[in-house]
Amino acid sequence: MTESSASPARSGGDSPRGRLLAAAAHLFRTRGFERTTVRDLAQAVGIQSGSIFHHFKSKEEILRCVMEEVIRFNTLRMEQGLAAADSPRNKLLALLRSELTAINGDTGEAMAVLIFEWRSLTPESQEYLLDLRAHYERLWLDTLAEAQRAGLIAEHRDLFVLRRFLAGATGWSHYWYRPDGTLDIEKLARQALYLVIPE
């Protein structure tokens, strides 16, 4: 795993727990949750397999923690972007920039794990994470509503549907977007803004 993609484990820093979460995000993304063993995780961070259970009760708990940290990390990034924005239009741009960065930048592997390994969670873990995710989505819906009140989005547009379209568009961008290409995240976010506010 690259250094930048370890961001979801930032709360654990360079601790054994933090390194485990960073390695887990990488392995769950590249091999899949089911095919990744506890031994694989231990080898990735240079510890004995049994040592993992000093930090986590099970492999499923590791998966849940990877997802929890990436949600918390990117929710904070969105909140900071919103706080720095000075208009409804710029708030939407900040959210798009944050989400595209999350998917195509420093937390890309953990975001992919969140999307593609959801069914590997227990129902209890899913419920817990959905509560966290609800706040993330509320930031989006509140900002879209503010833009609609400001006349930037037509009154007849369904904001829930609009958000689902945006989530789909940003979520799939990692399949075709190339960070080393001519379009950086800022330019990509401005292009995505046209989906919401045509010019």
How would you summarize this macromolecular structure in one to three sentences?
The chain has helices at 16-30, 38-45, 59-84, 88-104, 108-116, 123-149, 159-171, 185-193. The chain is mainly alpha-helical and 199 residues long.
Structure description:
This protein is mainly α. It has a domain at 59-193: Tetracycline Repressor, domain 2, CATH 1.10.357. Helix content is 62%, strand content 0%. The protein contains eight helices and no strands. It has helices spanning 16-30, 38-45, 59-84, 88-104, 108-116, 123-149, 159-171, 185-193. The longest helix has 27 residues, at 123-149. The chain is elongated, with a radius of gyration of 18 Å. It starts with 15 loop residues before the first helix and ends in a 6-residue tail after the last helix.
Number of strands: 0
H/E topology pattern? HHHHHHHH
What is the beta-strand fraction?
Answer: under 5%
- The CATH C-level name of the domain at 59-193 is Mainly Alpha
The profile of the biggest β sheet is:
none
Question: Which regions are unreliable across 5 or more consecutive residues at pLDDT < 50?
Answer: 1-6
- How far apart are the first and last residues' alpha carbons, in Å? 40 Å
The CATH homologous superfamily of the domain at 59-193 is named Tetracycline Repressor, domain 2
| CATH architecture descriptor of the domain at 59-193 | Orthogonal Bundle
What is the average of the pLDDT values? Answer: 91
- What is the C-alpha radius of gyration, as a whole number of Å? 18 Å
Structural class: mainly alpha
CATH topology of the domain at 59-193: Tetracycline Repressor, domain 2
Shape: elongated
Helix content range of the residues, please?
55-70%
Q: In DSSP terms, counting alpha (H) and pi (I) runs of 4 or more, how many helices?
A: 8
